[in-house]
C-alpha cells in the first residue's frame, strides 16, 4: 500500500475515535477520560506489538539510535495531546472539539516548513488558510 492508501485508512479509522470516546466519557456514569485513554492506548500497544511480531521489526536494536530522542519527544507530545483531546471530548461537543483538534495539521505543516525545511507553495498556503476558515465555521457556536 502506498502512503495515500495508508492516509485514507488512517482517516477512516480515526474518524470514529472522537464519537466513540464521547459516548464513553460523557454523561452520568461516564468512564473517566484518563481511564479511556489508558485502555484505548493499551489496545494500540497490543496491536503495535502484533504488527511488530508479524513484520519482524525489532525494537531493542533501535533503542540506542540517537534519533530515539525524537521518538520519545513525540511520545510525550502524543501523551499530552491525547489526554487533553479525550478530556475535551468528555466535556465538549464532538462537532467543536474534533475540528479544533484537527488544526494540528496546520501547526504540523508550519513545523515542517520551519524545522524540516519543507517547501512552501501558494497552493499549500491557500489550503491551510481554507482549513483554518473551515474550522472556525464548523466549530463556531
Automatic annotation (TrEMBL):
The protein's name: Multidrug transporter
Transmembrane segments: 36-56, 68-88, 94-116, 123-140
Entry keyword Transmembrane: yes
Record InterPro entries: EamA_dom (IPR000620), EmrE-like (IPR037185)
Organism: Halobaculum saliterrae
Keyword list, A-Z: Membrane, Transmembrane, Transmembrane helix
Any Pfam family hit: EamA
GO cellular component labels: membrane
Origin: domain of life: Archaea
Amino acid at each position: 500500500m502506498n502512503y495515500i492508501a495508508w492516509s485514507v485508512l488512517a482517516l477512516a479509522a480515526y474518524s470514529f475515535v472522537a464519537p466513540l470516546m464521547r459516548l464513553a466519557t460523557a454523561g452520568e456514569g461516564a468512564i473517566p477520560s484518563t481511564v479511556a485513554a489508558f485502555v484505548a492506548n493499551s489496545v494500540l500497544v497490543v496491536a503495535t506489538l502484533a504488527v511488530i511480531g508479524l513484520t519482524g521489526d525489532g525494537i531493542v536494536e533501535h533503542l540506542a539510535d540517537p534519533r530515539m530522542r525524537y521518538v520519545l519527544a513525540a511520545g510525550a507530545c502524543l501523551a499530552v495531546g491525547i489526554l487533553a483531546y479525550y478530556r475535551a471530548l468528555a466535556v465538549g461537543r464532538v462537532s467543536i472539539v474534533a475540528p479544533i483538534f484537527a488544526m494540528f495539521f496546520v501547526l504540523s505543516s508550519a513545523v515542517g516548513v520551519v524545522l524540516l525545511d519543507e517547501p512552501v507553495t501558494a497552493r499549500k498556503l491557500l489550503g491551510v488558510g481554507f482549513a483554518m476558515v473551515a474550522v472556525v465555521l464548523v466549530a463556531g457556536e
